[in-house]
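Escalation from tier 1.

The customer reports that the assembly of three entities below gives different structure tokens on two consecutive runs. Tier 1 could not reproduce it. I'm attaching the input and our single run for tier 2 to review.
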Amino acid sequence: MNRHLIAASDLSRDDALLILDTAEELARISDRPIKKLPTLRGRTVVNLFFEDSTRTRISFEAAAKRLSADVINFSAKGSSVAKGESLKDTALTLEAMGADAVVIRHMASGAPHRLAGWIKGHVVNAGDGMHEHPTQALLDAFTIRRRLRGTPSGGLDGVRVTLVGDVLHSRVARSNIALLGTLGAEVTVVAPPTLLPLAVEGWPCAVSCDLDAVLPKTDVIMMLRVQQERMNAAYFPSVREYSRRYGLDVARMGALPEHAIVMHPGPMNRGVEIAAEVADSPRSTIVEQVANGVSVRMAVLYLLLGGADLGGTNE
Amino acid sequence: MTATWLIRNASLPGGERTDLLLRDGMIAETGPDLTAPGAQVLDADGLLALPGLVDLHTHLREPGREDAETIETGTRAAAHGGYTAVHAMANTDPVADTAGVVEQVWRLGREAGHCDVQPVGAVTVGLDGTRLAELGAMADSVARVRVFSDDGKCVADPLLMRRALEYVKAFDGVVAQHAEEPRLTQGAQLNEGEVSGRLGLAGWPAVAEEAIIARDCLLAAHVGSALHVCHVSTAGSVEIVRWAKAKGWRVTAEVTPHHLLLTDELAEGYDPVYKVNPPLRTAADVDGVRQGLADGTIDCVATDHAPHPAEYKDTEWADAAMGMTGLEVALRAVQQAMVDTGLLDWAGVADRMSVRPAAIGRLAGHGQLPAAGGPANLTLYDPAARPEPVDPATHASKSRNTPFRGVALPGQVVATFLRGTPTVLDGKLTS
Amino acid sequence: MHARRGTESPATGSPPDKRVLEPDEIRRALTRIAHEILERTNGAGDILLLGIPTRGVPLAQRLAERAGEFEGRTIPWGSLDITMYRDDLRLRPARALGKTELPPAGIDGRTVVLVDDVLYSGRTVRAALDALTDLGRPRAVQLAVLVDRGHRELPIRADYVGKNLPTSQREQVKVLVSEVDGEDAVLLSEHEPDEPEHKGALA
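Tier 1 run:
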């Protein structure tokens, strides 16, 4: 694997399967009384979060601690970043503190790329602007594999996945489209035309504006969070209309094949893109996605940090 | 009293070889085998003698942003790139929207002495797009402003643009528009297209440029005035300008060196050295603007030299300033994009980089093909030179944000003469 | 150690591998170990055989099945991957993990018999002991290996040994098991002069 995990589109099929298979093994330690492995003892993982995200940060923190790594949390609000210190200077400070890996979440697409040029440690992208959120896609793939495959191994060949929502602004969508394609799934995106990128025709997925037509042919439906601010920028006229045309309500859940599962990266707008009853139904994987996130992030940290350092080239 | 210079065996843009005798700021004589006892001799065998280059679009940053560039360093950079005159854009701090500021800029340029600085006046007060600036006062000032632009920002209000176009007719002025419909480019980071979609960067659609150009061509025609379009970047914009010219309307246009060579794919590493407004576009757009420059639809090359200090570029893309330097590599970039590809000959380069920009800027004393009796503003250029790849550490500009770092551009400016006085000799600044 | 007809080793020009154990000898050794386990654990009432991936696992399965046949009941077995506990992780790029599968009853209070193909420096077994500590508290831990090739670097010894094979550190011992390699055999070969020692991979 590369030195860094910045984009799901950087992962080959073998890379992705290695992460998922490793995560399968690491998932077992949640069942043990001692939820700890000594593997990353003495290594330092820094969580560098410029965007509020308790859920993802805690997930990375748990993953690092279960591998016995030391964790330092650096959130933008309480630090020099709030006083206007540049990303570069923050990076150099972390470097001086001896960070072996930096997990970064930032509002600007491309921030992890820049960070990788400034530090010697490994960079894990926890979400950059609208660009990518690779560990989310990995835990989504892990979840799909567990739910839909008898024994969780191999890829997702032939699995039909539908993503619904604000694809244009969604890093989760970009990462998932890339990774699911790499693993052999068939991806369809559904959204109002205003929330699809102009060049989506060139993306490795089918496109539809009609959710109801797609539902019966879906094995996995993944709902993306839609932000209410988009309404003010005229992406759609009202929350009501959005929900009516693109929301997953109980009736639509009934139109899915029996084995189909419902996913959401969180946090949810209950009642907007997903009805409360759907979110709470047994078809929904939303809760297990969170647990799977820790296993997948453990696998990523182990594969990046657990072996020999591959030299200082920043790829 | 400037020294007398005898330039031997230069090649004129049309192809003929000649000697040139420069005396008292003029080209005193041309012809083969001239003699001039006491003159300094420059062997120009293998060198092109171009009329001194004229830039219609430069940001000298002074007053207000001297951390990025000053009139001193910017004009040194211009001379280094073969320029004898530059138009200094008005988005300084304070904005050049009064006679006072433009006269200050003009004076600082004269004092620096490396090339002529022709100030551009703002169209609106403070560039706020709501009130006309005192265009007449600036025209009457010692700076003799004829080109007016809010560049950096678009004059978006159609009524205000109409008024500006009408008003400048009184003193043969021209409004130079930075064509960008602001409602379509809020938060935009990169050309809207395949690359921006993939990279997760908000798009800057071509239509935001083209719609304004179309509107302004129609306005200029309607009121019978002159429009100049800054930094044309899309193939569609070229078609619109071509259409307007075919109708006989007084529309001129410019293109930057970087839009002649670079595409949006360079943004893939998120290095903000490639962040610019208007953004780098697609290969089809590069072809379109090259064709436009070749057939004269685009009248001239203008650098849009936009220096920024390191901390404005050494950051994440969304946070970085937009702009690229260009004065010192422009002629070489044009050689690579246009001459070496067979799209334009050197006579064409002389036309696009000196004659026409001087005409559009209404700049007397510049843009005249080298001939006896004309002002001694000359650029001696070696197209066969193959220097080291571009290294901004060797640039005279204060700023280092060139997108051509590490690129092997052909050619070298060997000497620049400003009214008979060399500002560059042997490729190096004389001061 | 008997020299048998050799198999050509992959590196050209090096001497062929020596076969030091044939399938029949392996079968008899495993049978003997199965009997020894039953003897020393008084009928294997509470034992659990845990094979260390990769080849320790099929060996553990065979031992469990054989002992189970002799005793007339099922003897539990599983696998214990020790990758995360190795002391030499930083010497090579991160490795893929093997499977850890324990029976539902776990290891608490049981006698765990670790099973591996080769015992060398002892570091693998040390890692396995650490892994067991994090999984529970066995009553006792024993070790069964098919081949003991000497050169211990830690105070670790095997309770059950299929074959003692004195070797030099320049030599490499390779165990083949039919479940993984298509045949049963133990091979001995010389290192290439610049070949890294494979101690970490076998130990």
